[in-house]
Amino acid sequence: MLLEVIATTVKDAIDAEKFGANRIELVTGIKEGGLTPSYTTIKQVIQNVSIPVHVMIRPHSRSFIYDSYDQEVILNDIEVCKEIGATGIVFGALTEENSIDEVLLKKVTARVKNMNFTFHRAIDDSNNILEAINTLMQYPEITHVLTSGGVDSAIDGKETIKKMVELTNNSNIKILAGSGLSIENISDFIEYTNVEEIHFGSGVRKNNSAIDVIDSSSMENLLKKLVR
After folding, report:
1. What is the 3-state secondary structure (H, E, C) of the chain?
2. pTM score of the predicted model
């Protein structure tokens, strides 16, 4: 079981690794669902940890629909992440009709050579999540899809997540489940959905607060649940 933990600062990233995370999703604006962190933050995190770092590529939190100016920012931020040495990016985009924006997706996949690519929870806002996952499977550059199953909590979306896992078996994509997962519910969730990768944010922070620090005891308790 792979555990990805959200980090918003260099100290977060160092703590996440120290406490047992397998991978970091690096963001700023965690309360807005994650935005692209600064150049220096990305660089310092990569220099201070040895586990993979996936960087959020999201220029604003208004929507997952991006105009030509946004797209220029997105594509340049990907180049910056590549130059600094990030293992991967986290990105997603939709059309006005809430389907996958394949025009932009093709531009992005052309930039992510030799990097992992997580298509993020934009998929949860798509008009048909199972159609969307079938679309994403056509792009071999996409390595992960972060999802809560089309609803706010992955616990409520577990039926859909289970279907997504079944659909992506033997494909290039791993389903990364996140949002609403906790130490208390994770064992039953994993057993039901058969996910192999999970994503934690506030669930491993003090007071379950998105803006508090990563808590060593929460991480320890979670890791005990992940041992099969």
Report:
1. CEEEEEECCHHHHHHHHHCCCCEEEECECHHHCCECCCHHHHHHHHHHCCCCEEEECCCCCCCCCCCHHHHHHHHHHHHHHHHHCCCEEEECCECCCCCECHHHHHHHHCCCCCCEEEECHHHHHCCCHHHHHHHHCCCCCCCEEEECCCCCCCCCCHHHHHHHHHHHCCCCCEEEEECCCCCCCHHHHHHHHCCCEEEECHHHEHHHCCCCCECHHHHHHHHHHHCC
2. 0.96
